[in-house]
Specification:
The protein is an alpha/beta fold. The chain is built from twelve helices and ten strands. The protein has an eight-stranded mixed β-barrel with strand order 1-2-4-5-6-7-8-9. Bound molecules: ligand C2E and calcium ion (3 copies). The site of one calcium ion has 4 residues, from strand 6. This is EAL domain-containing protein. It comes from Rugamonas brunnea.
Length: 279
């Protein structure tokens, strides 16, 4: 047992230590990132499959960390969630996305949404409704131009509390979508109760759908279920024309992915919006 114990220690300790050190380092840097203006948003276009029209952009956070280049949210969002920094960062994302969309609107963008990702902690701590309301007010953006992306795990973690907040958010006039749909366990009853507008089909089912009959069956089932509940569907991770055609056949409403555009810096997003408008 001793021998085994030592082996286990030798195998796991170094990676655990560097992992912890890594997270500590990210956490220390992140604490100052907000004040030092190191965070920024990229925007990825969302397209209506039937008309080819631009219907919105999803705001995706990036961290321009001195000496580290552009840090991916997959690396720092989990740390921000762990230490609670996601609450002020989330409020910053809401303010920045709304202000940006208001500027694009003033520059001639047609009606569309900016979609903002929310973390579970934003429902538990802080005042999400107030953050959303303040972001819209300060920007002078109509609520219909803002969409909030929730995950299934948010809906399930504390249903009564989350439902109360979701209902207040709906009253403000924002729209709601369920992100990464299909990876969690939300039931039809939940979707009805929360009155969301749209399901975002997780990219794990979308990316190689042309090669995997099972994925086709899953996406078909999600689209049919969504439509029977009066919800729209958007497929994420659309990387090529073959996937696009298959999604069209399955009746998916909207698409997002590298096939149309990668997440773009703000300046490039305005060019994309104005070019899309010209057709
Ligand atoms: P997500 O919300 O599921 O966002 C979609 C991710 O897929 C983005 O990664 C996007 O760049 C990537 N993606 C889009 N199209 C394609 C494609 O065709 N192929 C492939 N392979 N990937 C594609 P990103 O920007 O690195 O964001 C990762 C995750 O970080 C997001 O996943 C989201 O969960 C989280 N995140 C990003 N911004 C925020 C934020 O402001 N707040 C919170 N709470 N989470 C955020
Ligand atoms: Ca998302
Ligand atoms: Ca997603
Ligand atoms: Ca995700």
């Amino acid at each position: 047992a001793k021998h085994q114990g030592r082996n286990t220690w030798c195998t796991f300790a170094p990676s655990m230590l560097s992992d912890a050190a890594d997270r500590l380092d990210i956490r220390n840097g992140l604490a100052q990132a907000l004040q030092r203006d190191e965070l920024m948003l990229y925007y990825q276009p969302q397209i209506d499959l039937a008309t080819g029209r631009l219907i919105g952009v999803e705001a995706l956070i990036r961290w321009q960390r001195p000496g580290h280049g552009l840090v991916s949210p997959a690396r720092f969002i989990p740390v921000a969630e762990e230490c609670g920094l996601i609450v002020p960062i989330g409020a910053w994302v809401l303010r920045t996305a709304c202000r940006q969309m208001a500027q694009w609107r003033a520059a001639g963008a047609p009606p569309m949404v900016v979609a903002v990702n929310l973390s579970a902690l934003q429902f538990g701590r802080g005042d999400l409704e107030q953050d959303v309301h303040a972001a819209l007010e300060q920007a002078g953006l109509p609520a219909g131009w803002l969409e909030l992306e929730l995950t299934e795990s948010i809906l399930l973690q504390n249903p009564e509390q989350v439902l109360a907040i979701v209902q207040r958010l709906r009253k403000l006039g924002v729209s709601l979508s369920v992100d990464d749909f299909g990876t969690g366990y939300s039931s039809l009853a939940y979707l009805k109760q929360f009155a969301v507008d749209k399901l975002k089909i997780d990219q794990s089912f979308v990316r190689a759908i042309d090669a995997h009959p099972d994925d086709t069956a899953i996406v078909r089932a999600i689209v049919q279920m969504a439509h029977s509940l009066g919800l729209k569907t958007i497929a994420e991770g659309v990387e090529n024309a073959a996937v696009l055609e298959l999604l069209r056949k399955l009746g998916c409403d909207e698409v997002q992915g590298y096939h149309y555009a990668r997440p773009l810096p703000a300046a490039d997003t305005l060019s994309f919006i104005l070019a899309a408008q010209q057709g």
